[in-house]
TrEMBL record:
<keyword id="KW-0413">Isomerase</keyword>
<protein>
    <submittedName>
        <fullName>Chorismate mutase</fullName>
    </submittedName>
</protein>
<dbReference type="InterPro" id="IPR036979">
    <property type="entry name" value="CM_dom_sf"/>
</dbReference>
<dbReference type="InterPro" id="IPR036263">
    <property type="entry name" value="Chorismate_II_sf"/>
</dbReference>
<dbReference type="GO" id="GO:0009697">
    <property type="term" value="P:salicylic acid biosynthetic process"/>
</dbReference>
<feature type="domain" description="Chorismate mutase">
    <location>
        <begin position="66"/>
        <end position="157"/>
    </location>
</feature>
<dbReference type="Pfam" id="PF01817">
    <property type="entry name" value="CM_2"/>
</dbReference>
<dbReference type="InterPro" id="IPR051331">
    <property type="entry name" value="Chorismate_mutase-related"/>
</dbReference>
<dbReference type="GO" id="GO:0004106">
    <property type="term" value="F:chorismate mutase activity"/>
</dbReference>
<dbReference type="GO" id="GO:0046417">
    <property type="term" value="P:chorismate metabolic process"/>
</dbReference>
<feature type="region of interest" description="Disordered">
    <location>
        <begin position="41"/>
        <end position="61"/>
    </location>
</feature>
<dbReference type="InterPro" id="IPR010951">
    <property type="entry name" value="CM_bact"/>
</dbReference>
<feature type="region of interest" description="Disordered">
    <location>
        <begin position="1"/>
        <end position="25"/>
    </location>
</feature>
<dbReference type="InterPro" id="IPR002701">
    <property type="entry name" value="CM_II_prokaryot"/>
</dbReference>
């Protein structure tokens, strides 16, 4: 059984510095709790807005709307393909990190490796900039997957290195 306390590995973000600031340390780019809270309050606002269902009927009497509907439908097919690919990639990522969790539990390593995380933060920021992606999105993605992966490492360690406790380990 692991005696690792979650406060040792679920490190709170240390710094509210703008994630886009050039030259900031990796630790400065970590999302802080306030940024996460702000992002979720914005999504609550969006949630509260009205929703529209786009369908052929709405476009029936207006060729401009009909054209917009056609383009939205084509873009949605691309969006659906991307979402499917992302889920496949996440499945593979969590299988790999679960396998790392088994090795760490066997070797007596803690779930977190902050040196590795700092490398990942800096790398993903560079990739996001090159790709034209908001660097906050890259950091939100990283924060999500790494936090989930460490939770699973802890579960594996608590189960004596048994990955059977996870539903994602193939
Ligand atoms: C998977 C690992 O464990 C943790 C999870 C990481 C991840 O999900 O990429 C990265 C570093 C660690 O804090 C690892 O050490 O490689």
């Amino acid at each position: 059984m692991s005696d690792i306390d979650s406060s040792d590995w679920l490190r709170p973000a240390e710094n509210p510095t703008d994630a886009n600031a050039a030259g900031a340390d990796a630790a400065d780019r970590r999302l802080d709790a306030a940024a996460i809270a702000q992002a979720s309050s914005v999504s609550d606002e969006i949630e509260a807005e009205k929703s529209s269902t786009i369908d052929e009927e709405a476009a029936a009497n207006n060729p401009e709307v009909a054209e917009a509907v056609k383009r939205i439908e084509a873009l949605r097919q691309t969006i659906d393909n991307i979402d499917g690919a992302v889920i496949h990639l996440l499945a593979e990522r969590f299988k790999a990190t679960a396998a790392v969790g088994v090795l760490k539990a066997g070797a007596g390593f803690a779930p977190a490796d902050y040196k590795r995380e700092d490398y990942q933060i800096a790398r993903l920021q560079r990739i996001a900039i090159d790709a034209g992606l908001d660097t906050n999105i890259a950091e939100m993605y990283r924060e999500f997957v790494v936090t989930e992966s460490k939770k699973r490492h802890k579960r594996i360690a608590d189960a004596g290195g048994d990955p059977g406790v996870l539903d994602v380990f193939a």
